[in-house]
Design brief:
With 727 residues, the chain is an alpha/beta fold. Helix content is 47%, strand content 20%. The longest helix is centred in the N-terminal third of the chain and has 77 residues.
Length: 727
């Protein structure tokens, strides 16, 4: 092949190759474009799928949240026993009546159907008649009328509420509470009304039960009030019926004692009076127990003398101990104020209740009373300690000691009087006064009761005092330790030096070793050692220590009767001569005479009139007696009286009406307004005193008449210029 041919062939091959290469490049580029297009489309497809997946996740999350919210709503509504309803009002409804027509659409939740016992829409269709046809006939008209009024009022934006009865599928009715509201357009036309229905049948059942119970309680209350009124009436009648004859018995006994001179007669009369007083105490305990139960226990404070309180207590309790061989000792703190502010009557009752208990349960040995003062700031705790050597209290009985009607050791204590109320009443009174009571006891050996009651005072002037006490001295020769200790306590309390001896040898040694101002000795011991005492104690004053009612020969002028306490010792050391005894012993309660005074007594019972005349006789007054209210009015119209005693209960015109009539007469004559009228009553029930005061009475005196209280009433109301003190 020539070179030209070869070159031409070569060129041809080159061209062919170049053409193939060009085609190949084009094909490659085309393929590359296809691949690029595929890759681009695939990328977009992957992005779209990813977005769709994200969207699907969002939709699923939203659906789950809606489901959770729906579940929570269902739980909330279900827990509240509330079901929902909704009514979209048709635009075609031209009137409210159309909106509420039987076939008007309304949506009910399944909860409403379940509430009334239905299952499904076929059972309880979503139309108005399903609602209105099942309302109780007594409620239907009111519900329809009020619903119409609500929808018609274009300005009404407040919710509507009903409590009605709906018929269930089983024909029974259930109480429901319906509440809802209405959506309106700009013109006030209703567009939609929605709300809820709550099952309130349980509440209604509870309300009905409460109403029934309230009615029963109301009936029971009326019965209780009637029973209480009957009880009050019964107690008032019993109090009057029992206290009236007791007043006669005790009053007549008092008069007989005043007139009797024979010891044998006086002893019998005293026994009658003591028996009557004991019965009266039981009656008073029962009445006090009733007052405490009713919450009517009254504390009436006032100024009182501590010495008078002690003398009263000693006088009463010694009378009860007259037939016993008990020794009664008294320890009184002479530093306490001589006058206190409190309820003296209740305090006396407290002390006497505890002392009576001690005397009843102590057959031999002693009973002692301690009276002490404990200053706290501007007030004082008044402390009473009653100790005895009696039977004591078993530990297992201590907790029941202050319970009502409790009696312990019945076999051992058979024959002991009382109804078991004294200590229970005492504790209640102490509590009402803001105080406390406690007991320490050892069975078979004795007991000690301690009472503390707060009292006020105006002055710290002491109950008893001895000037220059360190210059005076006492020597006590006494074998009865309880007496010796009580006198020594009083002497030491007054700051006076004191020595105690219990036998002749020690007595002589003491008298030889130093000089004493006073020797206190029993009559029996004095007779035994009289010569030696006269020899050794020439400058010493001898004082006989006597038991209660012990007869001491007149040749011994200086006598101190037990129980002696600080005032007696102070009087002795301050130079008093004669017989030192408790004021209550042998003392008349009459403190003055009032000759020229005229007194009227009105009572329908003859015996009471005789007792009144006898009790008033020592005062030397002119006493007129009448038996009726009308007679009392006639008497005051014809005579001028300084004082009137008016019985509360008299047949016909009773004491209250009589007093009111007398006060009305004061419109014409002021005398009838001023004349003091004192109520006399055997009715000791709470409220009687207040009732009398509200009806014109000036004061009050309970029957049987206490001579000390009578004296106080007379001293208070009789003009001072007509009173003449007795020496």
């Amino acid at each position: 092949m020539s070179d030209g041919a070869h070159v031409g062939l070569t060129a041809s091959l080159f061209e062919q190759r170049m053409a193939w290469v060009s085609v190949s490049v084009v094909l490659f580029l085309l393929l590359l474009g296809v691949v690029a297009l595929f890759l681009l489309m695939n990328k977009r497809k992957r992005k779209t799928i990813s977005e769709l997946l994200e969207q699907a996740k969002y939709v699923k999350s939203t659906q789950d949240e809606l489901s959770n919210q729906n579940m929570r709503l269902n739980l909330l509504v279900g827990g509240m026993e509330v079901a929902l309803w909704d009514c979209e009002i048709s635009p075609e409804a031209e009137s409210v009546e159309d909106m509420l027509s039987p076939d008007a659409a309304i949506w009910f939740s399944e909860g409403i159907r379940e509430m009334f016992g239905y299952t499904g829409e076929n059972d309880f269709p979503n139309v108005m008649r399903s609602w209105f046809d099942n309302i109780h006939p007594d409620d239907a008209e009111a519900v329809y009328t009020q619903t119409v009024a609500h929808l018609r009022d274009i300005t009404n934006k407040t919710p509507f509420v009903f409590e009605i009865r709906m018929r269930m599928k089983n024909g029974q009715y259930k109480w429901v509470h319906i509440f809802g509201n209405t959506l309106r357009d700009a013109n006030g036309k209703p567009l939609r009304t929605s709300g809820a229905t709550e099952d309130i049948s349980k509440r209604k059942d509870a309300e009905r039960e409460i109403a029934e119970k309230s009615a029963e309680l109301e009936i029971a209350l009326h019965k209780a009030e009637a029973a209480n009124k009957a009880k009050n009436s019964f107690l008032a009648k019993v109090s009057h019926e029992i206290r009236t004859p007791m007043s006669a018995i005790i009053g007549m006994a008092e008069l007989a004692l005043r007139e009797s001179e024979k010891d044998a007669d006086r002893e019998r009369i005293i026994m009658i009076k003591q028996a009557g007083t004991h019965l009266l105490t039981i009656i008073n305990d029962i009445l006090d127990f009733y007052k405490i139960e009713e919450g009517k226990m009254e504390i009436v404070p006032g100024d009182y003398s501590v010495a008078s309180l002690i003398e009263d207590v000693v006088g009463i309790i010694r009378t009860k101990m007259a037939d016993s061989r008990l020794r009664f000792a008294l320890m009184v703190d002479g530093k306490m104020p001589r006058s206190l502010f409190g309820d003296e009557t209740r305090i006396r009752q407290i002390v006497l209740n505890i002392l009576n208990n001690a005397v009843k349960y102590t057959r031999e040995g002693f009973v002692s009373l301690g009276v002490y003062g404990e200053f706290i700031g501007g007030n004082m705790n008044l402390i009473f300690e009653v100790a005895d050597s009696g039977i004591g209290i078993k530990p297992e009985d201590t907790d029941r000691l202050f319970s009502e009607f409790e009696r312990f050791d019945q076999e051992r204590n058979i024959g002991i009087e009382g109804v078991g109320l004294g200590l229970a009443i005492t504790k209640s009174i102490v509590k009402a006064m803001g105080g406390g009571i406690s007991v320490q006891s050892k069975y078979g050996e004795g007991s000690k009761f301690t009472v503390t009651v707060p009292q006020k005072y105006h002055s710290r002037e002491p109950l008893a005092k001895v000037p220059n006490p360190d210059e005076k001295s006492l020597l006590i020769f006494e074998r009865r330790a309880v007496y010796a200790d009580s006198i020594a306590y009083s002497a030491n309390n007054l700051g006076v030096r004191c020595s105690i001896v219990a036998n002749g040898t020690d007595l002589y040694e003491k008298m030889k070793s130093r000089t004493y101002d006073y020797l206190i000795i029993s009559h029996e011991l004095l007779k035994e050692h009289e010569e030696k005492i006269a020899e050794l104690g020439k400058d010493m004053r001898t004082v006989i220590l006597a038991e209660f009612d012990e007869a001491i020969p007149k040749e011994y002028p200086n006598v101190m009767t037990m129980p002696a306490y600080c005032t007696h010792i102070a009087n002795l050391l301050n130079g008093s001569e004669g017989r030192l005894t408790n004021a209550a012993h042998g003392k008349s309660d009459v403190s003055f005479s009032a000759a020229g005074t005229r007194v009227l007594v009105a009572d329908d019972i003859n015996t009471n009139l005789k007792v009144a005349r006898g009790l008033l006789a020592p005062y030397k007054m002119q006493v007129d007696l009448v038996k009726s209210g009308m007679a009392a009015i006639e008497a005051v119209q014809s005579e001028r009286y300084d004082l009137i005693f008016m019985d509360h209960r008299m047949p016909g015109m009773d004491g209250v009406e009589t007093t009111q009539r007398i006060r009305e007469m004061g419109e014409k004559d002021p005398y009838y307004k001023r004349i003091p009228i004192i109520g006399l009553t055997a009715n000791a029930v709470t409220g009687v005193m207040e009732m009398l005061m509200e009806n014109g009475f000036d004061d009050f005196l309970s029957k049987p008449i206490d001579t000390a209280k009578l004296d106080a009433i007379l001293a208070k109301w009789i003009p001072k210029e007509k009173q003449e003190a007795l020496l």
